[in-house]
Write a structure and sequence with these properties.
There is one protein chain. The chain has about 150 residues and is α+β, with helices and mostly antiparallel strands. It has 4 helices and 4 strands. A two-stranded antiparallel ribbon has the order 1-2. It has a two-stranded antiparallel ribbon with strand order 3-4. The longest helix is centred in the middle third of the chain and has 16 residues. The chain is flat and about 85 Å long. InterPro entries: RVT_2. This is Reverse transcriptase Ty1/copia-type domain-containing protein. Pfam families: RVT_2.
Length: about 150
């Protein structure tokens, strides 16, 4: 009676229900009902490593250590930031690691995610930074590019 995935759905015939009086002919009024296909979403795999409270705790777990290494490698590869020597009397902007489990739609563990989040609210323009980067395209830029394309 239930759909197993490879066979076509089974249609169950029941007597029509005269409960509503609108003129639209629906499957329920014809007595056709398709069974609800219930999915079993119970997980039978092992539980993931617990989320560490600090980065020191994450260093002892190989899964979290690998996630932190992958995040660092991605930051360096993408050119998001580079490690430079500290200038004299410069304010060091601190940050922290955010650890999360990422899951597939079926509930299985996809990967361990360790993000580096910088406390940017402690920066002051002209002291801690002198330029900013915004990956958002401004409307004026779009108009210029379109006008150059037309001409």
């Amino acid at each position: 009676m239930f759909n197993t995935g490879s066979s076509p759905p089974v249609v169950v015939h029941r007597p029509p229900s005269p409960s509503n009086t609108h003129t639209m002919v629906t499957r329920a009024k014809r007595g056709l009902f398709q069974p609800v296909d219930r999915l079993n979403l119970s997980a039978t795999h092992s539980t993931p490593s617990p989320i560490p409270k600090t980065y020191r705790g994450a260093l002892h777990d190989p899964h979290w250590h690998r996630a932190m290494t992958e995040e660092f490698d991605a930051l360096v590869t993408n050119g998001t930031w580079s490690l430079v020597p500290r200038p004299l009397r410069a304010h060091v902007v601190s940050g922290k690691r955010i650890f999360k489990h990422k899951f597939h739609s079926d509930g299985s563990l996809a990967r361990y995610k360790a993000r580096w989040v910088v406390h940017g609210y402690s920066q002051q323009q002209g002291i801690d930074f002198d330029e900013t980067f915004s990956p958002v395209v401004k409307p004026a830029t779009i108009r210029i590019v379109l006008s150059l394309a037309v001409s």
